């Protein structure tokens, strides 16, 4: 998964969480206003309207909580997919590094053997 794709999912999740917070704050404010209105007196129709509206807000909050849970799940899945890809990439990097190191050791041995043979020839001809 591309990092910018998971960043987009994180942004969507954060926005969903913010909307949930706004809804919850609005519900708290409305409930406080309802309590205040109750102390000043309220008709049965107004009471019922307050109750119905609170139910609608509660339903909206429930729906937004579902959205938040869903978006958090998508973020978790994207993060797991990214981590799996990253582990795979690191494995390939490790294999490539090992192969490079092995090739360098071979080359170093060839160079050393060549130097030893050269030194042996020079030593042989100096006699």
TrEMBL record:
Annotated keywords: Bacterial flagellum biogenesis, Bacterial flagellum protein export, Cell membrane, Cell projection, Chemotaxis, Cilium, Flagellum, Membrane, Protein transport, Transport
Subcellular location: Cell membrane
InterPro entries: Flag_assembly_chemotaxis_eff, Flag_FliJ_proteobac, Flagell_FliJ, FliJ
Molecular-function GO terms, alphabetical: cytoskeletal motor activity
Gene3D superfamilies for the chain: 1.10.287.1700
Protein family per UniProt: Belongs to the FliJ family.
Membrane topology, from the record: Peripheral membrane protein
Transmembrane segments: none
Skewed-composition ranges (Basic and acidic residues): 98-120
UniProt-listed Pfam families: FliJ
Cellular component terms (Gene Ontology): bacterial-type flagellum; plasma membrane
Protein name: Flagellar FliJ protein
Annotated segments matching region Disordered: 96-127
BP GO terms, sorted: bacterial-type flagellum organization; bacterial-type flagellum-dependent cell motility; chemotaxis; protein transport
Domain of life: Bacteria
């Amino acid at each position: 998964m591309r990092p910018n794709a998971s960043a987009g999912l994180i942004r969507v999740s954060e926005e969903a969480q913010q909307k949930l917070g706004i809804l919850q704050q609005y519900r708290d404010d409305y409930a406080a206003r309802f309590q205040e209105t109750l102390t000043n007196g309220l008709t049965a129709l107004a009471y019922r309207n307050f109750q119905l509206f609170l139910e609608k807000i509660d339903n909206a909050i429930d729906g937004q909580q579902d959205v938040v849970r869903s978006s958090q799940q998508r973020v978790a899945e994207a993060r797991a997919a990214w981590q799996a890809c990253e582990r795979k990439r690191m494995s390939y990097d490790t294999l490539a590094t090992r192969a490079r190191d092995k090739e360098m050791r071979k080359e170093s041995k060839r160079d050393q053997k060549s130097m030893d043979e050269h030194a042996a020839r020079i030593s042989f001809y100096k006699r």
